[in-house]
């Protein structure tokens, strides 16, 4: 048993070394990824069940690594955040997403696009100018841009974040709280951060089995309504979830059931199928 324990230790240590090597490699390559045009955006639809129509798109970044293939944002965003590469990367995403939204608008598809923001972007001192230049350069109407922020920002200087969010909303940009309910003091934030929408976390949406869970979701949906916030459920994968959520008063959904994140070409096919 002792030797087995030893082997296991060796196994873990090798594993950790491999992870560390991969991380270092990714970090090195991430520095060149933007110049090498290895990033692209995919878009996932937001769907109103009540109105049976498309109500927006979320832009999600992808990294097509020359050797490793597609690296998931779950792996490279933390590295980008730690190294500061998140700043030029976000600038690129914002420009790209605004430009794409304008292209859709010019074809008569008048739906907002949302971009995810890491909390660190609030400390760069350049978030506001980054967003206004993405809007100016593309010509996108600010009300067609939405920024998705996460609850983790309660751990930071909330006054400064609120000040910046207020300035962004004055420009006409929409703000939504991503992953709502996944942790931290969600509810306490709602009367402090000026928001337009709440996105119910996927873990929440996927766990509607017990009456208790349903009671909690139902209370959140009602509260959001009283606060005049839109509610959108994330990670909706099946009809059962759709009917539960609809019953509980949530009418806008996002998830594989309606559409996976797609490259622009696939978005066209998807819209054709939906008769858009
Ligand atoms: P998120 O913003 O919560 O995005 C939702 C994630 O859930 C996406 O993963 C999406 O592909 C996935 N998803 C959507 N519908 C379903 C579903 O029905 N079932 C399941 N199982 N998954 C679903 P993705 O694209 O891997 O992104 C992961 C996270 O990386 C995002 O979570 C977001 O926090 C971050 N991220 C992605 N793009 C960007 C970006 O451009 N900037 C920043 N700062 N973060 C980004
Ligand atoms: Ca998001
Ligand atoms: Ca989310
Ligand atoms: Ca998430």
Automatic annotation (TrEMBL):
Annotated EAL domain ranges read 23-275
Q: What protein is this chain from? A: EAL domain-containing protein
Organism of this sequence: Paenibacillus faecis
**Parent-protein residues present:** 388 to 663 of 666
